[in-house]
Amino acid sequence: MVRVVLEGPCFVPGSGGCDIGEIVPPNSEKSRALPPRCRFTFIDKSGHVISAVRFDDARPFSEGLAPVRVGALWGYIGKDGAMAISPRFDDAEPFSDGVAAVGRGGLHGYIDKSGVLVIPPQFKQTGNFHEGLAYVGDPESGYNYIDHSGRQAFRGTFMRATNFYHGLAHVQRNGTFPLGRFAYIDTSGSARFTYSVQ
């Protein structure tokens, strides 16, 4: 399934500091007025539109579900285009390891595929679960890793953290990025390789 825009021209806002967004399809006319914001749907491999509904925002399918925004709230649709988890979250990420990060009231937690909160919103920032672990925290107090029960998986707090892939995660132990001391840690928290950038 692929996220698409069927009606245009419309405007897709940017997602980063310098990303100002784009007009779809590209408009060669020099107009000062922005067109309306794009609305999204999904098509399957044959190009068939799976839902007549146009969503205010959408993220990729993963593990059979895709996060979609209806008005101000996020929910999830299935591959048939029907709403599988009703829109009730301030933010929602794709599923990974059977759970998805969702936001409520400025904090994030995790839901299962039935929409039940399995780890209540309590973190300022969250990563996706990979290989049974996810990083949580914030730049001020640091990041650590939790397991599917929401408990800290091993001792240690990091200034920066990434998802686990093939048994390793890249973390920053100290310093001011991009300078500092870095490591690749395994799922027990042990450093497999460390290095410094000065």
Question: In summary, what is this structure?
Answer:
Helices cover 0% and strands 42% of the residues.
What does this structure look like?
The mean pLDDT is 92. The protein folds into 2 domains: 1-114, no CATH class; 124-198, Lipocalin (Beta Barrel). It contains no helices and 18 strands. Helix content is 0%, strand content 42%. The termini are far apart. The protein has a 4-stranded antiparallel β-sheet, with no helix packed on it. Strands 9-10-11-12 form a 4-stranded antiparallel β-sheet, with no helix packed on it. The chain is globular and about 50 Å long. The protein has strands at residues 2-4, 10-12, 22-24, 41-43, 57-58, 65-70, 73-78, 83-89, 91-92, 100-104, 107-111, 117-123, 125-126, 134-138, 142-146, 169-174, 180-185, 191-197. The protein has 198 residues and is mainly β.
Distance between the termini: 44 Å
> Which segments are poorly predicted (pLDDT under 50) over 5 or more consecutive residues?
none
Shape call: globular
Structural class: mainly beta
Instruction: Provide the gyration radius in Å.
Output: 19 Å
- Write out the strand line-up for the largest beta sheet, numbering strands in chain order: 5-6-7-8
Mean pLDDT: 92
Total tally of structural domains: 2
Largest sheet composition: 4 strands, antiparallel
Strands, count: 18
Count the DSSP helices: 0
Amount of helix: under 10%
Strand content: 35-45%
**What is the string of SSEs from the N terminus onward?**
EEEEEEEEEEEEEEEEEE
